[in-house]
Specification:
- With 162 residues, this protein is of the alpha/beta class.
- The protein has one domain (2-145): Metallo-dependent phosphatases (Purple Acid Phosphatase, chain A, domain 2, 4-Layer Sandwich), CATH 3.60.21.10.
- The chain is built from 4 helices and 11 strands; from the N terminus they run E-H-E-H-E-H-E-E-E-H-E-E-E-E-E.
- The protein has helices spanning 13-26, 40-46, 62-72, 98-107, and strands at residues 2-6, 30-33, 51-53, 75-76, 80-85, 88-93, 112-114, 122-126, 129-133, 144-149, 154-159.
- The strands form 2 sheets. A 6-stranded mixed β-sheet has the order 4-3-2-1-10-11, covered by helices on one side. A 5-stranded mixed β-sheet has the order 5-6-7-9-8, with helices on one face.
- A hairpin with a 4-residue loop joins strand 10 (144-149) and strand 11 (154-159).
- It starts with a strand and ends with a strand.
Length: 162
């Protein structure tokens, strides 16, 4: 399964739209947003897609956004989520709560930990857990998203030019 990963859109509709389009073009079958969605406009871009997302530290109107996401059929995990895609166990959080990050790494139960927050793309292993940060689509020198192929374990970063 090809998973499209994005984060830190901060309601920047133009770059978020370009990021979602790039992931669709790459063939993403499921989309995971690692937080700092920012607003309803970004959720509108994800409507109709198989999507799950978590909150980031700048997602202020969580009740309103969660209600809006639910109306669009989008799954909100809150601050932390777990999902199985393509036979792989994936944990997702924003990355601003280091206790949550450390807990996932220490438990060594997941194949992947997806997070954002730093606005810097990363792909590294912490024991058996592969930690992936797709980068950011706002306030980043290089705006990026990522794909994860759960069958081949290949991560590809896609630079978004806007």
């Amino acid at each position: 399964m090809l998973v499209g990963i994005l984060s830190d859109t901060h309601d920047n509709i133009r770059t978020a739209a370009a990021g979602v389009a790039a992931l669709k073009e790459a063939g993403a079958e499921h989309f995971l947003h690692c937080g700092d969605v920012g607003g309803e406009g970004v959720l509108d871009l994800l409507a109709g897609l198989p999507v799950a997302f978590v909150w980031g530290n700048t997602d202020w109107d969580r009740m309103g956004l969660e209600r809006y996401a639910r109306d669009l059929g989008l799954q909100c995990f809150g601050n932390f989520g777990e999902v199985e895609l393509g036979g792989k166990s994936i944990a997702i959080t924003h990355g601003d709560d280091l206790r949550v990050v450390r807990g996932v790494i220490d438990a060594q139960r997941h194949d992947y930990l997806l997070l954002g927050h730093s606005h810097i793309r990363a792909d590294e292993c912490a024991g058996r857990v592969r930690v992936i940060n797709p980068g950011a689509l706002h306030r980043a020198r290089e705006k990026t998203v990522a794909t994860l192929d759960t069958d081949t374990d290949i991560v590809r970063f896609i630079t978004i030019a806007v």
